[in-house]
Amino acid sequence: MKKDRLPLSEFQLALRRFTRNRLAVWCVYALLILYAATLGAGFLAPYSFHNEDRNYSYAPPTPIQWSKNGRSVWPQALATQLTFNEYNARVYTIDPTIKYPIKFLVKGDEYRWLGIFPCRYHLFGVDYPGRIYLLGADARGRDLFSRLLYGAQVSLSIGPLGVLISFIIGLLVGGIAGYYGGTIDNVLMRLCEMVMMVPGFYLLLALRAAVPDDFNSLQVYFAIIIILSFIGWAGLARIIRGMCLSLREREYVLAARALGVSDIKIIAHHVLPHTLSYSIFAVMLSIPGYILGESGLSLIGLGIEDPYASWGNMLSDAMSIVRIQFAPWILWPAFFIFLTVVCFNVIGDALRDCFDPLLKGEEMRQ
Amino acid sequence: MLLELKDVQKFFSVAGGHWKTRPSPVKAVNGVDLTLKAGENLGLVGESGCGKTTLGRIILKLITPDCGTIIFNGYDITSMGHHQFRPYRKSMQMVFQDPYSSLDPRWTVRRILEEALSLEGARYPTVAQRWERTRQLLVAVGLNESVADRFPHEFSGGERQRIAIARALMLSPQLLILDEVVSSLDVLIQGQILKLLTGLQTTFPVSYLFISHNLRVVAKISHRIAVMYQGRIVESAPTQELLGNPLHPYTKELLAAAIDYRVSSGERPITSKHTTHLVDHGSGHFVMEG
Q: In chain A, what residues touch B94 (CB-CB under 8 Å)?
């Protein structure tokens, strides 16, 4: 160890403490994989989100043959045949005579990679007329796996975007209320309380009702983000305000005021940066709320609408117990919502743990 | 006259109780008259909670007084708006008591010092000019220019206080309010900082208003000393006069505590009624009587 090495910065110390939490690190990896998958959704998915085939309604995951007579062979997707039983329920039977070898880099539905570059190649797929359903199909015979990937683009992006907006509002409102105090503080905090007073989901519904019907899917997407962040900013603003109340009494704030630095600059440079370590984990812990909010709206049909996919509206298929019994794979979106929410919560908790001792240390120094 | 305070008052209301049982407000500063000539160092002594820090902050307009006037360089700054006050603000600065909380822990020394220059964009337009000024001040307060890119927590209390002094001097103020600047330092460092402050007056034309509870420290740097007790000035006189011939019982008690000065017993109680007033005892020695 070199003797003259620089003292570890606050961030490095926090990072070191964070990596000691194994579970949180695994959660970071899981989220990274999920987000990477949303970027390459068009390529990873064998079909587009609206490619349907009614003959495969609620088709189970396609059976794949890996070996023949004890020898491993190139994986082949077996064809299934749809018949109806005496209660007129669908029964899919495997037809071992028809096989479709799985191919890589196949041409299929056109999509735009990153929303810009048109492209037809998919990572894997089978030749027409065969179809491959890794995780089964939904009511209209659309591939659940593909729709999960496309749905992730909506469900996973709404959280961070919504948080970003409410974070900016919350920081500004909390910073101004805490720094000035008095009447401004009173007015802003009563405003916050009015937002917080109404139960979140009802407010969500009321605001959604105020959005015009003729919005296209992209407009609805942004409307949902704005609605969700409108609900979310109040809690953050209150906490930031509390921190600013104590921060503004610090002598470096007084010193800046004595120099004649403008209030806005003092808030932005001397007050808000000190709330940052708290804000980071507050943000992490509030992202699940946005994901769940979107899912809730979409689930009851007020969010992203068919044929566009989001984890929430995919779950609306699973609202009947009979369907779940018949096709349990339609619960996959629920699993991914659960996974994402847990990951964000674990990471948020870990961040709090690794920033807390530092915060205490800072208090002691001053 | 550089600074003149006339009957400055500041009461803080106390929370709690309803309108009948609410405690009466704290009279932090209760009618203070004070004058400070250019080139003169005025010491303001008093026990904790007597309102000296509040008074310092009132002069800088960090706290608005309830009534009274503050005249700086012949201009009444009491009721000036934020914009009008700006040019005067540069001429008075403050160094705070706690060197650990008066420097933003996330900022480098260079950024802390140059924050002041950003307000004087016209005078220091280029990076090189700003750095030149910063370097000049760092050297003036006895620090190496290489400390500029380090953070406050890497310094000792004395060094931090030097940085704070450098920051206050960045805009060449005429009046520097030193609020308990050496109280949190050990005796040796106290001596060094006091020596530095006296030395700085040869290069910078600045007057000090030195606020402290420690009469011994104040006596080293001040030409004149004002004694504050319960929000009022009870005695003010040139340093030697005050030390040699204290007239107000509270001053005597302070002296007894700080320097070995014998108090003849039986001179208590100390009065602080509002009917009292300062009486001239000749040669600039004012004592509260009544």
A: 254-255, 258
Contact A46, A132 (CB under 8 A): yes
A155 is written with which tokens? 């469900």
Which B positions 36-65 lie with beta carbon below 8 A of chain A? 57, 60, 62
The C-alpha of A258 sits at a distance from chain B's nearest C-alpha, in angstroms, of 6
Contacts of residue B57 in chain A, CB cutoff 8 Å?
254
CB-CB neighbors (< 8 A) of A250 in chain B: 101
Question: Which of B13, B106, B117 is best to mutate for the A interface (most A CBs within 10 A)?
Answer: B106
Cβ of B154 and A7 within 8 Å? yes
Domain definitions of chain A by residue range: 56-139, 148-365
State which residue of chain B sits closest to A275, comparing Cα positions: B106
CA distances from A331 to A223, A318, A321, B62, B224 (A): 27, 7, 11, 61, 83
Amino acid at B156: S
pLDDT (tens, 9 = 90+) of chain A, 366 residues, equals 344 445 556 677 778 878 888 899 999 999 999 999 998 888 888 888 888 888 888 888 888 888 877 788 888 888 888 888 888 778 888 887 788 888 888 888 888 877 788 888 888 888 878 888 888 888 888 889 999 999 999 889 988 899 999 989 999 999 999 988 888 999 999 999 988 888 877 878 888 888 887 888 788 888 888 888 888 888 889 888 988 888 888 888 988 888 888 888 888 888 888 888 778 878 888 888 888 888 888 888 888 887 888 898 888 888 888 888 888 888 999 999 999 999 999 998 888 877 665 554 444 444
Q: What share of chain A is helix, strand, coil (3-state, %, to 5)?
A: 60, 15, 25
Check if the interface score ipTM surpasses 0.95: no
The packing angle between helices A10-19 and A22-39, to 10°, is 100
Question: Considering only alpha carbons, which residue of chain A is nearest residue B83?
Answer: A260
Give domain A148-365's CATH architecture.
Answer: Orthogonal Bundle (1.10)
Buried b (16+ CB within 10 A) or exposed e, B91-114: ebbbbbbbbbbbbbbbbbbbbbbb
Chain A residues whose beta carbon lies within 8 Å of the beta carbon of residue B93:
258-259
SS3 percent helix, strand, coil of chain B, rounded to 5, is 35, 25, 40
